[in-house]
Design brief:
The protein has two helices and no strands. It is mostly helical. Helix 1 (2-29) runs antiparallel to helix 2. The radius of gyration is 18 Å and the shape is elongated.
Amino acid sequence: MSNDRNSILETALIFAVGVAAGCVVGILFAPERGKKTRHNIQKEIDKAGEMVKDNFEKISKEAGKGIEAMAGHFKS
């Protein structure tokens, strides 16, 4: 169970780093000017935030299931 939790957290961290790297590369290789760039950056930050939130919720649910399973194991 511990390995599963570590694997999920590791995957979420790698995903977040990938999103950040993609944003940086996108800005460097397809620059816009001024207001448009700020708008695009904000839009990407919002999307990344939603993805992180969704992944956090999934991880929390899985962790809760693991905790419940372990609690049931120790009660027996």
